[in-house]
Input
Amino acid sequence: MLDQKEVNKFRFNQIQNQKILVGSNWVHSKSGQTQSIISPIDGKEISKLQVCDHLDVNDAVLSGRETYERGDWSNMPPINRKKIMLKIAELIEKNMLELAVLGARDNGTEINMALKAEPGSAAGTFRYYAEAIDKIYGEISNTSNNFLGLIHKEPVGVVAAIVPWNFPLMIGAWKIAPALAMGNSVVIKPSEAASLSLLKLGEICLEAGLPPGTLNIVTGNGRITGQALALHMDVDVLTFTGSGTTGRKLLEYSAQSNMKKIYQELGGKSPNIVFADTENLEEAAKVSTMGIFRNSGEVCVAGSRLLVEKEIHDEFLGMVYKFTKNLKIGDPLDLNNDIGAINSLSQLKSDLDFVEKAKSEGGKIEIGGNRVLEDSGGFYMEPTIISSVKQDTTIFQNEVFGPVLTVTPFENENDAVELSNATAFGLASGLWTSNLSRAHRMIRKIKAGTVFVNTYGGSDNTLPLTGVKQSGNGSDKSLHALDKFTDLKSVWMKI
Output
């Protein structure tokens, strides 16, 4: 159980101006250029971040390549790599509250969620892949007795990772841990809007004994730093979580450089479907409310499109309204608050613009839709419910990435499937029904990488997070994530 006094021990810590990690050295960018880190809690500067250009990126990639080729990590016995990754997990847990508070000051996530979703999840991820290291085998093919067919699984070399601001430590661990488990070196670029927790992770990795150069961290904006990584000729694989606009650019940069493999998770516009036969409508309403409003809606798999069977539409909307009305918005480091801050002023403005556009296209604001607590200097927005949302409207089709829920009625099962699949995205979906046969039918028909049934969110490391359509390719989480960072080598040997 969190204690407010324990949280406050870290919330007022002075945060030194940040450096980047290249090899074993924490250094300034070569240009000396920095940018302010603005806390969404009160809109004030809390530190400065290095802005890296292609020269810094080249140093980081070269450090990763040299370490990889020397075999400091790639040739280390699996059992020894396992011990170091378990130590990283242990140190993350040792510093959990500090990491969670640091992240909340940086991106505005409510502390109750941040503790579990960021360091809690990251520690579990490192431990999961540490345990997998010495359990990944090559193969012997079933061929004639005159030949021996072997399939070796080898690291790809240097992995670049670009991660977003909503859950930097959790998503960063999803990239770093499986890449390290397979013996690769990593260069990671956090979002310029939330870099602090991943920079702290760099310190933890060195303390745990990760060989210098195995993990390098560069900071800066996507237009310069991210582009330099994506265009670098010595990066073998790039893994990215973020917007579809950036994802398209990364594919272009791959084609313009060394045709590096690109794996992407590009967000979603996830439907959450509620049938009239749902066993406990009140529980469904409560879970669905938090399925969109936790972390101010800044969640890739957020259930942002609520589809409700027509005969219970008004009743269920009333339940969701009730739970939404009771949510407390404010300082994310105050344990009494349910919802924290929007990550940045620009994101807040974008969220509010979507609401105005929805109103102009016939949507009805049931609750919310406004900026609040402006006197604090921070970036806060009311959880917002918009009903009467049609399929062809802007807000039905596009990811808001904010605390905005749309509600649309449906007539029957076929109508629900059509509405569910009526966007370009296919990351996640939710389904509420007591009819087991219907559940299985819907699971097959819904075009999404994940289907939550009679719940929303919360899957563990054993399941892949993957997208279909324009939500991306490849998988984060599970043993399937290792495939992104592995090359297969076939051996055909005459006996």
